[in-house]
């Protein structure tokens, strides 16, 4: 049925605001705030007075594809980028600080030997899902030993020193069932990317070519719904949220990767902040020596006490008191801080890695036991995961190497202290002719095998051919870094590739429904509040189909369809569709010719909003440049799956004055969970709210 009505206005005008040139507005579902996207900046504005409360400068603004508020609290918002990055900001802090960066695409550091997969995201949605939890009776068996250990530390650095601070708990709190999920779609690759708590990312195929939007789930285990521009729907059910062990698997796998990164990062900090500055100073001092062989001359001083003229010149002019103090500061800092990082950061991380491997081993066995039970067979040989045994062995070797390195560092620190005192006497004797050694200095240097130890230190650090900056410690750090990169990261990636990702994908169900309809163009979609498996889809029929041949050539046909996914009882998707004809309103004169053409124009944009009364959706269509038509959806009291449409139209005016006189309205923005609607031109925004009696408005039935 096609009808045109002149019923009471369904939308109440609230005000108009000049925003300047902007690209998008995103309304907050919980708080009286909204985002304004303007080029390279995002501003957070108050809804009550339109005052700006925060401004964020975007990085790579041309890559941004979507913006979304946190649906649960409304205190955070996310910016999604085409290259697979999501940045989450906290609007409760001054200026809207960056809270977190989520890499949706796997990083190559954790997947050695593989190329980075292109993201090319076209749409994304951020939602919270709920996991099932173990019964309380199992709580006594589910003990995480690593959580009972003292907190890990993080390095706090400045230009003068390095210190340690508590890092706090890591990862999601499993005592809360909620988990953060980002589901994105790549139009180029025709695939979805699913990120769970920023711990694991999985890819799975999609049949949708051009995505309109992804709808988040409405209830605990509800599906995500991908809505294509051609009307195709894909329901994505995350069945792994119904398996508590899967959450343990995801968190434990993410914890293993985090510890591998933690170890590598701290080794790199030791090299860049402790080893390298000392090595650079030592290299400059050795390069400044103009004699034959620095090592030989220092050994000669050690044996006979005679100082060669070239060595004396080097000690006076190149080393001197200033460079000696700098050398002493860097060496003392290196010895002390290196030992602290090894004992307080890397050793505890290796211990936690061993515990995480053992826990992961138990999780794997439990999941495999469930699979064997479902298949009705039991084979003990299928319970083990040999890759975890290899990983556990590598973690144990890493811990043993670290403890050996700590022992070597402590021994080198003692030797370094002896050399430092002896070297100070040699330098000062050359710099200050009045300097006198302590009375017991010679006796101390020649006792307890000290000359041999000093000669070993000289050979290790002061020869022209020595590439090592700090002897065994430098070599040991390189060995730890290589083991962490080549062994630990490789094993962790292999576990993800063979077990974690495939097991997650086994429990991701994608159901496709709705035939491709080339003659329609989808505008918007919203989940049915009465049945989360059903979606209302609004679209425009492009080119009147045969059954609409009696329509006016100047009108626009709007389709509102309620489409439901196939279920276990019925494998066929159900769909109920109503259509509405938008006919230009000739009862009022058109806008002035100088500003807007008076000729009829097709629909420009459409969006769903929600009624205050009962939460029923309504579709608002912007057409004929300055007309809003509101199509309210009424459910049948006899057949719940059926519905009817009533419509009312109104002009974009305040009283008799047009709201947009120079530039026509071009877009609509709304929050699907509220009754607010904003109409936008390139620089202005008019805000409307659905009237409380909207569903009692009259109109033709469809």
Automatic annotation (TrEMBL):
Name of this chain's protein: Anaphase-promoting complex subunit 4
An annotated GO BP: protein K11-linked ubiquitination
Region (Disordered): 583-602
GO cellular component terms attached to this protein's record: anaphase-promoting complex; nuclear periphery
InterPro entries membership: APC4 (IPR024789), APC4_long_dom (IPR024790)
Keywords in alphabetical order: Cell cycle, Cell division, Mitosis, Ubl conjugation pathway
Domain of life: Eukaryota
Species: Lachancea lanzarotensis
Stretches assigned to the Anaphase-promoting complex subunit 4 long domain: 236-432
This protein's record includes keyword Cell division: yes
């Amino acid at each position: 049925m096609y009808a045109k009505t002149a019923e009471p206005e369904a939308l109440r005008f609230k005000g108009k605001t000049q925003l300047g040139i902007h690209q998008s507005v995103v309304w907050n579902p919980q708080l009286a705030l909204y985002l304004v996207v303007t080029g390279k900046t995002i501003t957070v504005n108050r809804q009550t007075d339109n005052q700006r409360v925060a401004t964020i400068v975007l990085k790579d603004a041309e890559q941004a594809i979507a913006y979304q508020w946190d649906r649960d609290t409304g205190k955070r918002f996310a910016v999604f980028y085409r290259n697979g990055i999501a940045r989450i900001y906290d609007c409760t802090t001054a200026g809207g600080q960056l809270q977190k960066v989520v890499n949706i695409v796997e990083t190559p550091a954790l997947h050695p030997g593989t190329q980075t997969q292109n993201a090319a995201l076209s749409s994304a949605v951020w939602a919270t899902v709920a996991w099932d939890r173990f019964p309380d009776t199992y709580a006594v068996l589910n003990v995480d030993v690593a959580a009972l250990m003292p907190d890990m530390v993080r390095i706090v650095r400045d230009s003068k020193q390095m210190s340690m601070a508590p890092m706090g708990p890591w990862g999601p709190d499993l005592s809360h069932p909620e988990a953060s999920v980002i589901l994105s779609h790549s139009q180029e690759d025709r695939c979805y990317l699913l990120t769970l708590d920023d711990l694991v990312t999985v890819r799975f195929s999609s049949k949708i070519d051009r995505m309109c939007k992804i709808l988040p789930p409405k209830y605990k285990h509800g599906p995500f719904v991908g809505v294509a521009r051609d009307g195709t729907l894909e329901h994505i059910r995350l069945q792994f949220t119904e398996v508590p062990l899967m959450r343990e698997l995801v968190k434990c796998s993410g914890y293993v990767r985090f510890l591998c990164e933690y170890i590598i990062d701290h080794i790199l900090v030791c090299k860049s902040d402790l080893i390298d500055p000392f090595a650079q100073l030592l290299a400059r001092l050795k390069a400044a020596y103009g004699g034959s062989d620095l090592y030989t001359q220092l050994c000669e001083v050690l044996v006979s006490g005679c100082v060669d003229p070239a060595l004396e010149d080097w000690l006076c002019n190149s080393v001197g008191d200033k460079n000696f103090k700098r050398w002493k500061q860097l060496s003392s800092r290196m010895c002390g801080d290196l030992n602290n990082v090894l004992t307080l950061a890397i050793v505890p991380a290796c211990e936690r890695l061993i515990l995480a491997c053992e826990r992961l081993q138990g999780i794997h066995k439990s999941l495999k036991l469930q699979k064997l039970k479902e298949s009705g067979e039991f084979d003990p040989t299928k319970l083990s995961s040999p890759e975890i045994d290899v990983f556990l062995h590598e973690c144990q070797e890493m811990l043993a190497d670290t403890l050996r390195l700590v022992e070597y560092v402590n021994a080198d620190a003692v030797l370094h202290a002896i050399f430092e005192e002896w070297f100070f006497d040699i330098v000062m004797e050359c710099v200050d002719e009045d300097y006198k050694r302590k009375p017991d200095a010679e006796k101390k240097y020649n006792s307890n095998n000290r000359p041999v130890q000093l000669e070993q230190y000289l050979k290790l650090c002061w020869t022209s051919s020595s590439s090592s900056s700090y002897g065994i410690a430098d070599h040991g750090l390189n060995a730890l870094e290589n083991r962490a990169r080549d062994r630990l990261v490789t094993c962790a990636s292999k576990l993800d590739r063979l077990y974690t990702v495939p097991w997650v994908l086994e429990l991701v169900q994608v159901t496709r429904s709705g035939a491709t309809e080339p003659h329609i163009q989808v505008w918007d979609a919203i989940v049915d509040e009465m049945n989360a498996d059903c979606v209302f889809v609004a679209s425009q029929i492009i080119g009147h189909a045969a059954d609409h041949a009696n329509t006016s050539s100047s009108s626009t046909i709007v389709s509102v369809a309620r489409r439901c996914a196939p279920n276990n009882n019925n494998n066929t998707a159900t769909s109920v569709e109503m259509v509405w004809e938008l006919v230009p309103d000739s009862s009022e004169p058109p806008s002035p010719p100088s500003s807007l053409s008076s000729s009829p124009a097709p629909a420009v944009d459409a969006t769903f909003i929600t009624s205050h009364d009962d939460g029923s959706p309504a579709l608002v269509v912007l057409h004929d440049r300055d007309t809003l038509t509101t199509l309210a959806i009424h459910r049948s009291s006899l057949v719940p799956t059926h519905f009817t449409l009533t419509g009312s139209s109104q002009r974009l005016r305040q009283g008799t004055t047009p709201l947009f006189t120079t530039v026509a309205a071009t877009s609509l923005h709304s929050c699907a969970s509220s009754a607010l609607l904003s109409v936008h031109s390139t620089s202005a925004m008019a805000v409307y709210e659905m009237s409380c009696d909207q569903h009692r408005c009259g109109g033709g039935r469809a």
